[in-house]
Design goal:
It contains 12 helices and 10 strands. The strands form 2 sheets. Strands 6-7-8-3-9-10 form a 6-stranded mixed β-sheet, with helices on both faces. Helix 3 packs parallel to helix 6. The protein binds adenosine-5'-triphosphate. Pfam families: ABC_tran. InterPro entries: AAA+_ATPase, ABC_transporter-like_ATP-bd, ABC_transporter-like_CS, BCAA_Transport_ATP-bd_LivF, P-loop_NTPase. Keywords: Amino-acid transport, ATP-binding, Nucleotide-binding, Transport.
């Protein structure tokens, strides 16, 4: 049985159609990626799962089941209590609070008691030693990458069974993005399923076993991540791999037929 099953999900914000008939599976223990450009509907998909569409005046139809149980009728806090935790886009940490208090806040609303909170904190510090070193600093003073670590650490404090990550590599330098990617792998290796929403297809396809490509609110492509990474369309549109023939055609069109590259080089 799939851990998360989204079926025929359609979402609108008033007159704006953001998602249409989207079906996505996140199998137990897997990393599933959802790719797509700006406005494709990636964040909306996560909001539907975390039951936070209402905060954004969004409404939807379709079904979402987590471990066989429908999420219909549940509020955001009940979804968190069920173990589905979202790390929102843009590293939303509590800037004036210390790193330690941010992490403590993550444990609020989770099922565990003191012992689980202490164990969770140990695990977060193991994954992100910098959060232990900076425990008493204000979160707003951390670098962008460190804030992303804190946002993920805070989510881990809630003991997620399914982690929803919204563009964790956004705006990070390549080295930091690679570190975050490594950590996502480590988190997943300890049994947490991950739904990873990314514009950075190179990172997402490397981490995920299955991927979906959203295009203007619909699933345009889906399949094993390695097959998608090898497909011409994904390489051209999302991995920035230039199709040489198309590039040559475009250059010739600009130069005009009488100024083809071969004539210039002749
Ligand atoms: P990005 O990568 O830019 O964050 P995205 O793939 O996450 O994009 P969404 O944020 O889900 O896309 O947006 C999907 C569509 O819904 C877009 O057309 C967007 O303008 C619209 N939209 C999102 N949130 C709202 C809202 N609160 N009110 C109205 N329209 C919205």
């Amino acid at each position: 049985m799939a851990t998360l099953e989204i079926r025929e999900l359609s979402v609108g914000y008033g007159p704006v159609r953001a998602l249409r008939d989207v079906s996505v599976d996140v199998p137990p223990g897997a990393i599933t990626a959802v790719l797509g450009g700006n406005g494709a509907g990636k964040t909306t998909l996560l909001r539907a799962v975390s039951r936070t569409l209402g905060f954004h005046r969004g409404t939807g139809t379709g079904t979402i089941r987590f471990d066989g149980r429908s999420l219909d009728g549940l509020g955001p806090a009940q979804v968190v209590a069920a173990g589905v935790i979202q790390v929102p886009e843009g590293r939303q940490v509590f800037a004036r609070m210390t790193v330690a208090d941010n992490l403590r806040a993550g444990a609020l609303g989770a099922r565990g008691g003191r012992k689980e909170t202490a164990a969770g904190l140990d695990r977060v510090h193991e994954l992100f030693p910098v959060l232990a070193e900076r425990a008493h600093q204000r979160a707003g003073l951390l670098s962008g990458g460190e804030q992303q670590m804190l946002a993920m650490g805070r989510a881990l404090m809630a003991g997620p069974r399914l982690l929803l990550l919204d563009e964790p590599s956004l705006g990070l330098a390549p080295l930091m993005a690679a570190r975050i990617a490594e950590t996502i792998q480590e988190i997943n290796a300890t049994g947490t399923s991950v739904m990873l929403v990314e514009q950075n297809a190179a990172i997402a396809l490397r981490l995920a076993s299955t991927a979906y490509v959203l295009d203007v609110g619909e699933v345009a492509l889906e399949g094993p991540a390695d097959e998608l990474a090898a497909s011409d369309e994904v390489r051209r549109r999302y991995l920035g791999v230039v199709d040489e023939t198309a590039a040559e055609d475009a250059t010739q069109a600009v130069a005009g037929p009488s100024r083809s590259l071969s004539r210039w080089s002749a």
